[in-house]
Amino acid sequence: MAETVPSHPPAPEEGHPHHEEMSFWSKYIFPLDHKMIGMQYLFTGIAMAMVGGFFAYTFRMQLAFPGIEVPGWGLVSPADYNALVTNHGAIMIFWVAMPVLIAAFGNFLIPLMIGCDDMVFPRINRLSYQIFFLSVLVLIASFLVEGGAFGGAWTAYPPLSAKAEYSLTPLGSSLWLLAVALEFVAFLLGGINFITTAMNSRAPGMKMYDIPIVVWMIVLASIMFMLSVGPLVAGAVMLFFDQQLGTGFFDPARGGDPVLWQHLFWFFGHPEVYVVLLPAMGIVAEIITVFARKKLFAYKTVLYTAFGTGILSFTVWAHHQFVAGIDPRMAHIFTITTLLISVPIAEMCFVYIATLYGGSIRLTTPMLWALAFIAEFLIGGVTGIFLGASGADIYFHDSYFVLAHFHYTFFPIAIIGFYAGITYWFPKMFGRMLDDRLGKIHFWGTIIPFNGIFLPLFILGLAGQHRRIYNYEHFPELATPELQALRVLATVSLLVMLGFQLVFLVNFVRSLRRGEKAPQNPWKANTLEWQAPSPPPHGNFATLPTVYRGPYEYSVPGRAEDYWPQNAPE
Amino acid sequence: MSSRPIATTRSATEIPTGKLAVWWLLGSEIVIFGGLLASYIMYRLAHDAWHAQAAATNTWIGAFNTLVLLTSSLTAVLAHQAAEEGNGPKAAKLLWATIGGAATFLIVKAFEWTMEIRHGYTITADTFWSFYYTAAGLHAAHVLAGAVVMVFVARSAARNQELHRVELAGIYWHFVDIVWIFLFPLLYIAK
To answer: Mind listing the pLDDT tens digit of every residue in chain A (570 residues)?
Structure first.
């Protein structure tokens, strides 16, 4: 591979000197290599996505066909239903979006894209995954204990979550809380590693504005996570004491206040939306520039809007509490900040669209996903305006309109963002190409049913269907055949979409074994990870690169090639 | 581990990587304690009755522990100074003095809590006491963690190894000290 790596006159640092064979255990189970830790996060995240998807299938079947024996689960009791929706939400956010978008892509990409050989603290990195894995085990254990899994919604509002006589899950709710807390610790450790690595370990010559957008985004997301999760860590300790010791932090009868939990939760919970959004936005930025063969329209604007989003996201949390009895004057303030935060995000979308304008667009599978991300996320963003306005929210609150809205944000982030990233970086991660035809079948088979699931839910929400009801037969105005038909449509669309995920799994497994061998730089991209071998060996680069220019110099006039790698001297 | 990655040796910000990481760690700790104390202050302002509960805390014991922690921060600074001069054994001795301060703090706290629990002021007695034990307990866990870390740092410093870690442990220790500077007036002095 040495001849394919551009060599530079000043070769300041030799590549990693250690290439001895490692045992199975030290290579795959307890690795220190950032790429392998990224893979551990990736595969754990995919496995958890299957669990979360199975839960969605089970409760959607119950809603479309109340009282049937759901194949693979059986009869869904009300307690089952609550536990399924609670853990579907928690799993998809804490055990799918976070590990895949931040930990898997962050671990794999940051050292490669900034041109160094590993994270700065490999052992802390390994510890981060181990704590994360422990959190998965604790979460699974919460399903197996006496009383069953926690069913008080992923937001875990007290008093329902605080008292066993209300939740009926004396152990399940505490284990659930412990699992979430462990997950936070794992991501705090990982985040410190990401931030420090990106700040200190960039290749010689890589200035602040030469850092690829996706690295910026993952680092900003890690900082936001770190600064928002603290109060909820404190809140989790307080809730745990309420559950297990009988304190009254959230018990109004004893001087506590349940609304305090809502503040602590959403002070984290709303920035968390942007914590997962920013990495997805970063992935999309990389893909759009490469496949439009054009410079990113406004690099610094994307950065400033990301900073603006980050700061504003700490001032919007109470829009989740408009009906919780907060002062209407406060509601006005939070309405204004919430509407304001749509400005930087919209600007980011405009930058991406402007990047496409006049480019020579290639509709590869990753590009399709990236374009779909913008289109679908826009629907989520626009419907958010209705909910951010306190007047409208009082009507929409806790309806399926809210549910459809946040699935139009989180599905593009967690699922479309993941598929965009994995189809784009698969050749680098595994050294093989994915099948493009199967990729496109999977793309259309996912995007069309996705809209089939959630567009009907907007209509149901407007018709007054409230959330967290396991059977609508007892609500005469909601049990009409027209509304039931919409529920069936959503469920059938879900079944179709889940079925098409098999295409991806087949493509993934088959390409791993028999896919076409990937060249070093199949997409002709500029960023440094494509200048390392596919897949990169331990230590990443034969000679650690030096950076001469920004990451998005595509189609520069006067050059024979339409790309210009960051590490090419000329 | 056989060797450090090259990434660890780089310093684009010209701040040593370890120091940078400790500051980010403290950033995450500040918001944890910040959230807890902000909750406490909001509750306290809304509940006049808590004054009666707070009157039962022992300000003198709290003041003594404040003095102990401040003194241990002084020895931590002196240890850093000795490490800067390359005098590892001296830095190690001063770190052991800091660890001694941590131990004194925890022992005094144990006696204080035993006394209070005997008088019926348990964690469930009142929400004031819930905050009292949760905040001070979380802080005590940090004192303990800092002491354990300093044992390792002192042992390597005594052999003149990894002297830069003396400063890192010191930064963390000052943070633990500062948290207590907030806790002492909020839990003890404000009656």
So the answer is: 333 444 343 444 554 445 556 788 888 888 999 999 999 999 999 999 999 999 999 999 999 999 999 999 999 999 999 999 999 999 999 999 999 999 999 999 999 999 999 999 999 999 999 999 999 999 999 999 999 999 999 999 999 999 999 999 999 999 999 999 999 999 999 999 999 999 999 999 999 999 999 999 999 999 999 999 999 999 999 999 999 999 999 999 888 999 999 999 999 999 999 999 999 999 999 999 999 999 999 999 999 999 999 999 999 999 999 999 888 899 999 999 999 999 999 999 999 999 999 999 999 999 999 999 999 999 999 999 999 999 999 999 999 999 999 999 999 999 999 999 999 999 999 999 999 999 999 999 999 999 999 999 999 999 999 999 999 999 999 999 999 999 999 999 999 999 999 999 999 999 999 999 999 999 999 999 999 999 999 999 999 999 999 999 999 999 999 999 999 997
- Locate the domains of chain A by residue range: 35-531
Nearest CA of chain A to the CA of B87: how many Å?
A: 27
Which string of DSSP letters, residue by residue, matches A313-338?
A: GGG-GGGG-TTTT--HHHHHHHHHHH
Q: Say yes or no for a CB contact (<8 Å) between B21 and A254.
A: no
| Domain of residue B161, residue span | 15-189
Confirm if B129 and B121 have CB atoms less than 8 A apart.
yes
Question: Can you give the CATH number for the domain in which B106 is found?
Answer: 1.20.120.80
Per-residue DSSP letter, A74: E
Q: Does a structural domain hold residue B6?
A: no
**The domain over range A35-531 is classified in CATH as 1.20.210.10:** yes
Q: By C-alpha distance, which of A56, A388, B33, B40 is closest to A396? A: A388
Q: Do A120 and B5 touch (CB under 8 A)?
A: yes
Angle between helices A34-64 and A122-144 (to 10 degrees): 20
Q: In angstroms, what is the C-alpha Rg of chain B?
A: 19
Segment 183-222 of chain A within 8 Å of chain B by CB: 188, 191-193, 195-197, 199-202, 206
Residues of chain A in contact with residue B47, where contact means CB-CB under 8 angstroms, are: 255
* Residue A21 confidence (pLDDT): 66
Nearest to A116 among B1, B6, B130 (CB): B6
Indicate whether B116 belongs to any domain: yes
CB A177 within 8 A of CB A236: yes
Q: What's the structural domain count of chain B?
A: 1
Of A199, A230, A237, the CB nearest to B12: A199
User: Tokens standing for A282?
Assistant: 């970063």
What does DSSP assign to residue A466?
B
For chain B, what is the HEC assignment? CCCCCHHHHCCCCCCCHHHHHHHHHHHHHHHHHHHHHHHHHHHHHHCCCHHHHHCCCCHHHHHHHHHHHHHHHHHHHHHHHHHHCCCHHHHHHHHHHHHHHHHHHHHHHHHHHHHHHHCCCCCCCCHHHHHHHHHHHHHHHHHHHHHHHHHHHHHHHHCCCCCHHHHHHHHHHHHHHHHHHHHHHHHHHCC
Distance CA A73, CA A80 (A): 10
Band (B1; pLDDT cuts 50, 70, 90): very low
- Of all residues in chain A, the one with the smallest CA distance to B25 is A192
| Cα A45 to Cα A107: distance, rounded to the nearest angstrom | 14
CA B81, CA B170: separation in Å to the nearest integer?
11
Residue B5 to residue A117, Cβ atoms within 8 A:
yes
- Is residue B7 included in any domain, yes or no? no
Chain B touched by A543 (CB under 8 Å): no
Q: Find, among A556, A539, A552, the residue nearest to A34 by Cα.
A: A539
Helix (H) or strand (E) holding A75: strand A74-75
For B127, the closest of A18, A201, A255 (CB atoms) is A255
Alpha carbons B108 and A295: distance in angstroms, whole number: 64
